[in-house]
Amino acid sequence: MPDTKHIALVLGASGLIGKETLNLLLENNKYKTVYAITRKPLGITHPKLTEIIADMSTVDEALKELQVDHLFSAIGSTKSKTPDKKQYYEIDLEYPLKVAKSLHQNGCNTVCLVSSMGADANSSNFYLELKGKVEEAMQAVGFRSVHLFRPSLLLGKRKEKRFFEQLGKVLFPVISFLFIGKLKDYKGIQAKDVASAMVNVATQGNTGVHIYQTQLIKELA
Predict the structure, then answer these.
(1) Its principal location (predicted)?
(2) In contact, 202 and 112? CB cutoff 8 Å
(3) Which of these CATH numbers, 3.40.1190.10, 3.40.50.1820, 3.40.50.720, 3.40.50.300, describes 6-160+189-220?
(4) pLDDT, position 182
């Protein structure tokens, strides 16, 4: 009896990890249909891909009857792009949570969330606090499987330049030999490796809440 093929949805498909995740899902024969929520067309044509053009104000209606198995949430803003903290919360927390609740209500059982190393809802750092709250909110939705990915410095080609990431890309190769033992989690990681690990764990069907730091992500990629 052939394995049942999955249906996935990617939130944040135009971003660094989201784009890699989308490409891997389209190439993976374990997935028969892949949806991507975007504000504007991605410019990709693939027989398995269906784009859903929506934003926070219209996404509820767009997802009202949509049934998927796996949600891959890789959406996120930056302080430079979204200096207003209220808008930052809307993009990083309220929007993905709204999508997650809609999909879960329609039968989605698995979520893979791109978070951040150091995510902590009680952190004094705004970014880490926000990521921690997103993690907590996703766990509260009721998914059978929750996979939280906490990568360190992300490596890959972005549309926009991020100063500290650019600096890290220069420095980390020079000092990478220092990151041994527990410090391995501080090494930079390719966005494609994060995407690959997410797709791999989603198809394994393990239930419960799972947290993945950089080194484990690399091993699962």
Answers:
(1) membrane
(2) yes
(3) 3.40.50.720
(4) 59
